[in-house]
Amino acid sequence: MVSNTESTQRQYALRQRAVALGWPAEQIVVIDQDQGHSGASAADREGFQRVVAEVGMGKTGIVLGLEVSRLARNNADWHRLLEIWRSASR
Which domain does 19 fall in, by range? Predict the structure, then answer.
């Protein structure tokens, strides 16, 4: 991450944003394993797989990101995550 430290700092600043929104700091989990990896596919992206699992198990109250395109760039992965969110929120 030496070449793009501003993006990394902005991503970690989301933790403080969640605290400012009222989320307890001890409940905030930063998932950053995929930094520097392409969002083109969920394959081999441990962080994305963890987000999907946590959402699916109903363990998330909010997911913050700078750009959703960084989370999932192809429609299949993005729609899968949205469907899991929708199912978990019922």
Answer: 2-88
